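The material for today's practical consists of a large collection of protein records. There is nothing in a record beyond a sequence line and a structure line. As an example, a complete record with its sequence and its structure tokens follows:
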Amino acid sequence: MTQMTPSPGTSRPDLKEKKKYVRHMFNGIAGTYDLLNHLLSFGIDHYWRWRAIRLLKPVRPELLLDMATGTGDFAIAASRQLNCRIIGLDLSEQMLAVGHQKLVRKALTEKIQFACADAENIPAAEDTFDAATVAFGVRNFETLTRGLREFCRVLKPGGHLVILEFSKPRLFPFKQLYFFYFRSVLPLVGRLVSKDPEAYTYLPDSVSRFPEPESLAEIIRNAGFSSVDYRPLTFGIVHIHHAVK
């Protein structure tokens, strides 16, 4: 796979090359991704996933799509809380390889299946899934609206979509402390552990350029969802968006 380097002075990939950039980046950090995920979030990422999955408990889905599944943490947590079959899709073969090892160790290969696929071209027929989730992945879609329309296409009528994504806190002084950590501490620690000079610079850059929660809710509605609500977690570090087709 050809390496794609951002323009000098920025970690933002060109839109046409974003998919290749994201795939290459996550393939490169797959081995240290879980360690850094838990370390850099101080372990609170477990709580964020639990809150997002809890929204689907009343739905009782039988078949769940977990897009941008990565190493499978969200899919594994969902299988325990929801007791359903899960299809996890991701662009990165190396992230999925790490995830598959976890499924084998946890004896979950019959409940969860992984495949390499693009969020903007989901390999499933219309009205297939009862619910769909994406945790910290919609920022990486090359075309956000196209990915959201794909979710709408493959969900059954009345199907639920849950998006868990980083956002920008607004409360003083938490906002200032957060941005110092996000822009200075996190990239340094990420670079030292992962040995990747770009990956953990891309993270705060992509968050800063992502739509605000209110705007994202409107984009989700325009993609074909009839009901959309959202809520902040941990002073607005992340937001959960919950939509119904």
About this structure: Residues 15-244 form a domain with the Rossmann fold fold (CATH 3.40.50.150). The chain has one domain: 15-244.
